[in-house]
Write the structure tokens for this entry.
Amino acid sequence: MVDINALLPEGMPNWTPEETSGAKEFCNNGELIDWAVWARSPEIMPLDLAKLAHHINPLKWRGYQTSLGELPEEQRYSIDSLAHWLKSHSDKWTLTELVAAVGNGAYAIQLPYGMIQATKPKPAPPGQPIKPPETPMQKEARLSAAQALGIDISIPARHYLTDGFPDTTNAKNIARWQHPLDAANQAKLTNLIETTLNRSNPEFDWPAKYSAADVMGLLEELYQMPSEHIRAWHNATQPPPPIGTAEPDTTPRQERELTQWMRKTWEAEGKPNGSAFFSRLKKYANTKGSPITQHYTVGGKSGGGVGWKTSKTNGERTKASIVNMVSRFKNEDKAKQTGST
């Protein structure tokens, strides 16, 4: 087993990203990947896309083999973790959607240079701005909203579900996005938005229209986390940050707290590899100050996970996602070391 990432790490002296990425493709497949063909594919399955993200041609290698032999354990877990994350959002993807997700910080991975280049938008006609690709979160929210509201998006029409979210809309639409198929709560929220916000904005015409920024404070106060439709609308209509400004962290606070605890614990344990760290988490289950509530293994090396709980919410993390998290920690440490030299 050969670890291609250890053999050809990112940032090799005198190597460009294109050369490093191309070498990984050639070592894994015996040839370069035709990214132009994959960029035109409208439907890529999660596991196939996860392999492509790791410089592996899924049409040539159906299992966990490459030209170098069987993949090392950490690479298999990294592929499985990404495939699981992709499938949890959609059964079918495109290269452009994955590149947009990584670019927006939804998933941490260094994508192949050829994949990124193949998905760059074509130059816009003179005088017209380039429309950025729809992010997976926006797509997921748009499609689920369409289903909840009973709208057939296959019928061509100018509507937010087919052409993107509007900059402003009325309280009734906002209430429908927050409470799909719940007429009673829609009516309550519509009235609350109109009475609360119009009182402080009497100059609005009736019925008033509101931007996502206008209503997010009220909705967060009411629900802590507004619906995915509202969050997608908010993200899609916010102006881009100034050049050089870091994008805001949209990860839920409870998830950030879990990640911070995981990193601190990983460092306290001596920064072990992903599988070893997962095993060591067992002793933290149901201990004081630990968010870990349970630790379980299923099917030996290929399965398992942990349950976690904070003061506000709870959830689960698979073994694969923890291994991937440790890989991200290691990459962050390497980036810090590179930046300090």
Notes: Strands lie at 65-66, 69-70, 168-170, 209-211, 292-296, 305-309, 314-318. Residues 155-162, 199-205, 243-254 have pLDDT under 50 and may be disordered.
